[in-house]
Amino acid sequence: MTGLSPSQYYAKLTAQHGTPYYRRIDAAATPEQKAAFKGLTVAHIRATELAGEAITAVLLNAPGNGAAMGGIKVCTENGWFAARPSGTEALYKIYAESFISEAHLQLLIDEAQGLLAPSLRGA
Question: What is the maximal distance between C-alpha atoms in the chain?
């Protein structure tokens, strides 16, 4: 419809909105720690900021259909992270995206691990 190839359309979108930076990391987790994700609530995220920005949302369910995410997602104006346990491996996954830079993305990931640690430590 646009007459642009997918790569041309992507280049147009990033020129208009900025380049997104995304990464997924895996962290070792015991069965107890993986189970702790089921008990996470919005109250477990006590911070008001993430990577230097105000937290705008803490989600346990998908906003579109209300389905449980099986983990947690924390959002700011220019980035987010989501964490959930693996269904098949002894680990949990952190997904993160920054709309600012690679350095901001790394800060999101580092702070995500710090925010999750107290909830997973006792498990």
Answer: 55
- State which residues form the domain around 77: 20-121
pTM of the model: 0.88
- 5 in a structural domain: no
Measured in residues, the chain has a length of 123
- Number of neighbouring beta carbons within 10 Å of residue 91: 15
Alpha carbon distance 66, 93 (integer Å) = 21
Which of 71, 72, 48 is closest to 58 using CA atoms? 72
Q: Give the number of domains in the chain.
A: 1
> Residues 25-75: pLDDT tens digits?
999 999 999 999 888 889 989 899 999 999 999 999 998 999 999 999 999
Q: Which CATH number belongs to the domain containing residue 74 in this structure?
A: 3.30.310.50
3-state secondary structure of 29: coil
CA distance 68 to 38: 10
